[in-house]
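INFO  loader      accepted 1 record
INFO  loader      residues=430
INFO  predictor   begin
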Amino acid sequence: MTIRLSFALTCAALLASCGERDIILPGERLSIRGDTNFTNEARQIALPAQQVNAEWTHRYGSATHQITHPALGASIQQIFAVDIGEGDSRRARITADPVVAGDVIFTLDARSTVTAVSTSGATLWSMNIAPRLDGANDASGGGLATADGVVYVTTGFGALTALSAQDGSTLWMQDLDAPGASAPTVRGNLVYVVGRDSTAWALEADSGRIAWQISGTPSVGNFGGGAGVAANSDIAVIPFPSGEVVGAFPIGGLRRWSTIVSGDRIGEAAANITDIAGDPVLVGDRAYVGNFSGRLVALNSFDGERIWTAEEGSISPVWPAGGSVFLINDLNQLTRLDAADGSAIWRTQLPEFVETRLRQQRTVFAHYGPVLAGGRLIVASSDGQIRSFDPTSGAETGAVAIPGGAASHPVVAGGTLYVVSKDGQLVAFR
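INFO  predictor   done
INFO  writer      dumping tokens
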């Protein structure tokens, strides 16, 4: 009887509390998700003149991950599609952007096969560089760079391999002692790569011998592949999975400065990821670096001093042009920032989820870019569209289909746009 009486009194207390009126506290209400009153601005922009570029040797064109304004026709259509190996699957992913040099496009599929394709669409050679070991097909990912007749390839097996661009034969191979690695960066006689164990390597380009190494702050959670080094003759900007960014002298590898890109976007699960998502971009005396959790910084490349911080994550390298910085942020928004202070000028929402019903939305579309070419911003997406946007206003101006959906950033060379599809094809548009 006592137990029943106690239970009844507890229920009565709960019912009474449910009937109490909510207390509305006075004061201004502030959204935890940022400025909800933001309005896009169609601010005029003076873009640099278009130039026909014959090569695209690294992610986003060069060792600094920056190329000014490639020429591309106003209206493009598919001219060929060539099989390059295995596409995306449940166990393997394509993570490498194609690179272009000497009228040849080099690609890396989801299972460590490198393929050379001519600009007319003919396959010149194909080479699988996975180790001949049991279970070797269980790793995927990696990246590409090319310089002086050599193709440098990182793979999910933790190796950097130098191949002859002429026939795909192996020139040398260096074991990185870590699963996965960033796309390589070649500058002078050094090849830079960052392993997933937070070790940065500088290797001699002609032999693969170790020139120097730098160890960064370890990280327990990061992406496969990750961001690569941006380098010029004065500085190598090295991103680590922990969010640490180091500026090092190319000769000797002495640390010049170090900083942390940290912070998170409130209310987003991805805010717990510390990894640098967008490769550093070097433009003049500035370095732009973005993470996946809502932060993009502009740094003085000489001493690492922070010029500004924007509450915008960057899932790819940014594209600075005309006093603006263009990027795809961590909310799948194509975004334009003012390069002077990092303030937002406009944001355009890209497709977010594969599933249409709200409660079932789990699979996010992947978007690659933006690339400024032919006077417009180009974004390749896994939903099967390559979209163009007006740099002034962010308005969509056109689209062309890519069969299977995109699995790489757009690459523009010789007036032609190349994208690798999720089906394992190199698709060309002109």
